[in-house]
Design a protein that fits this description.
- By secondary structure, the chain is of the alpha/beta class.
- It folds into two domains: about 150 residues, Rossmann fold (3-Layer(aba) Sandwich), CATH 3.40.50.720; about 100 residues, Dihydrodipicolinate Reductase, domain 2, CATH 3.30.360.
- It is built from seven helices and 13 strands.
- Helix 3 links the parallel strand 5 and strand 6.
- The two termini are about 30 Å apart.
Length: about 260
Amino acid sequence: MPPIRVIVHGAKGRMGKETLAALSLDPETTPVGGVGRSNAGDAISLPGGGPIPYDTSLAALLVRCQADVVVDFTNAQACLAAAHLSAEHGIHFVTGTSGLSTADLEALRDLSRRHEVGVIVGPSFAIGAVVLNHLVRVAAPFFDYVDIFEAHHEAKVDSPSGTAIALARAMTAERAFKRPVPEREPLPGTRGGEFNGVTIHSSRMPGRLAAHEVVFGAPGQTLSLKHDTLSRECFMPGVLMAIKEVVKRRDCVIGLESLLGLK
């Protein structure tokens, strides 16, 4: 079977560069093009390999190369535009873009149905974070109070993280939590954000990559579940798994739990 041909949308970003390197090393995949915001000529060099086509426009790049999958690490607006274009060309779509709303996810589901292409959305591609999402679903029915603490590097564009929102969604799919509100808040906002009774606290600073901790509370006890991301290479097994799975599908999958047999 020939390798899966992949275009990386967001190729000049940190995750894009890591993905290009991982695709180059995996015998079942091959990077065939890159899209980025900055002008870098009509080609970019792969780590330890030759050049591949590059453009600031996905539409223009699709004229120059054939692809089976577009992998996206950009922002919500650019992600949706790339998903529409990919689906119209019959190309499967994988995204790890953060900040997608419920309406955005429904739009991706609709694209998948109408064009009969696979779409996989990964709030996180770190396997440990996917397992964390599963574990909070297991724990949620036994507690009435919960806080999420997430920390990322200073350049992350959204707050809270998509992973934190996915955790909150997972825990509140069938219930809401109790959320104590202080009588006084001398410094507004210190209680954190709220999602169906789940309080979410965000930290942004240099020295961090990504960390998520879910703390459940009950009389006389707490339960803490935590995942730390130490380097971007931890995302690559999940990214490659999604690429190899999406070409087999004609539906939209939110999260990697089902790919790991956790649902």
